[in-house]
Amino acid sequence: MLTVEALRDLQGDATEWRRYLHANPELDYRLQNTARFVAEKLASFGINHIETGIAETGIVAMIQGEGGDGPTIGLRADMDALPIAEMSSKPWASKIPGCMHACGHDGHTAMLLGAAKYLAATRNFKGAVALIFQPAEEHGLGGRKMVQEGIMDRFGISRVFAMHTKPGLDVGKFDLCYGPIGAALDQFDIVVKGRGGHAASPHKNIDPIVIATQVIMGLQTLVSRGADPTDSLVISVTKLAAGQNYSIIPENVEIGGTVRTLVPALRDFAERQIIASAQGIARAFGADVEFEYRRQIPVTFNHVEETGMAIRAASNLVGPASVDSSIRPSMGSEDFAFMLEARPGAYIHIGNGATVSVHNPAYDFDDEALPYGIGYWVNLVEVALPASQ
């Protein structure tokens, strides 16, 4: 069992790494500098099995334990930033206009690097640890791409784990839950096809704007009246595009939005009912619709045994009172879900203190959280891969 105090010597290095990454953010798969930085650090720790170029700029590095033969577990950190202009006067503020680490991925990467340095030096575990540095989490598909490129079989990963910063949760605390912890994310586009014409003669046209408003309101009843109220379903219209002239009723209106749910079967329900509702409303007015539904990210699902391991690891570090294992799931999505579909595992939140929320231009990762994250990873390895006696 490792304490936070035993890791204070690593905090300085991890802070330096984190602030460098924060000042030099990169987007989606275009992480050439970030990936090079991570690979160089891993090599400097004496890790000699480092594979780069996975999912374009992803990395998997292997550390073999000295405690005997055993399975391989994966520890994942995401590396990409967001297309947001930072509002900060800190010395390590982003140097890249319109791009910043507004979701803590700089901290995630630094914490896993810190754990890598410790584990490579001690190797007090059996089996192996696969360090997964993933691109394009904000893009929503980097995790899927790494899975599709075969990292689970290629590196023999039997279990997989991830950690994410959580503003509003005190530094030194963790939280998670069994089962669904993050929602599935789907996207839809509807084109309402009417008949345009002069705004002075609406009776000669089929006004797609009026129809679109009815379609949008109809979608809300799918949640309030079509789905079981004890299940979680959110349908949000987030895009609306229509005409460009005051005097012209347009031919078409474009509607776009998202569907989020913790119940996989509700994805089928939403896809089926959104088109049925939109078509029914549009055809009642003499119009029609085009429809596209895209399944983006599955439910982030924490498996029982692995969630228990995560709870024990965090509790060993900070004590059971600082680990909440029964939080309510979030309706946000996380592409680590693809890895959890491929292998059993668990996703945990680490406290970032009383900061603004993620995806905010004023957000910054709290460096005081770094030794807690490093300690969680090391304790997790010792829980999941205990050395032979």
How would you explain this protein's 3D organization?
By secondary structure, the protein is α/β, with parallel strands linked by helices. The chain folds into two domains: 263 residues, Zn peptidases (Aminopeptidase), CATH 3.40.630.10; 114 residues, Alpha-Beta Plaits. Helix content is 34%, strand content 25%. The protein contains ten helices and 16 strands. The strands form four sheets. An eight-stranded mixed sheet has the order 1-2-4-3-5-16-6-15, sandwiched between helices. It has a four-stranded antiparallel sheet with strand order 10-12-8-13, with helices on one face. The protein is elongated and about 80 Å long. The two termini are 15 Å apart. The mean pLDDT is 95.
Examine the secondary-structure arrangement and name the CATH architecture of the largest domain: 3-Layer(aba) Sandwich
CATH topology of the largest domain: Aminopeptidase
Shape: elongated
Global structural class? alpha/beta
What is the typical, i.e. mean, pLDDT? 95
Biggest sheet, spatial arrangement of strands: 1-2-4-3-5-16-6-15
CATH superfamily of the largest domain: Zn peptidases
Cα-based radius of gyration, to the nearest Å: 24 Å
Beginning-to-end CA distance, first to last residue: 15 Å
**Helicity range of the residues?**
25-40%
Q: How many DSSP-defined strands?
A: 16
CATH top level of the largest domain is: Alpha Beta
> Major sheet, described briefly?
8 strands, mixed
Task: List segments where confidence is low: pLDDT < 50 over at least 5 consecutive residues.
Answer: none
Provide the domain count.
2
Write down the secondary-structure element order. HHEEEHEHHEEEEEHEEEHEEHEHEH
Strand content: 25-35%
Question: DSSP helix count?
Answer: 10
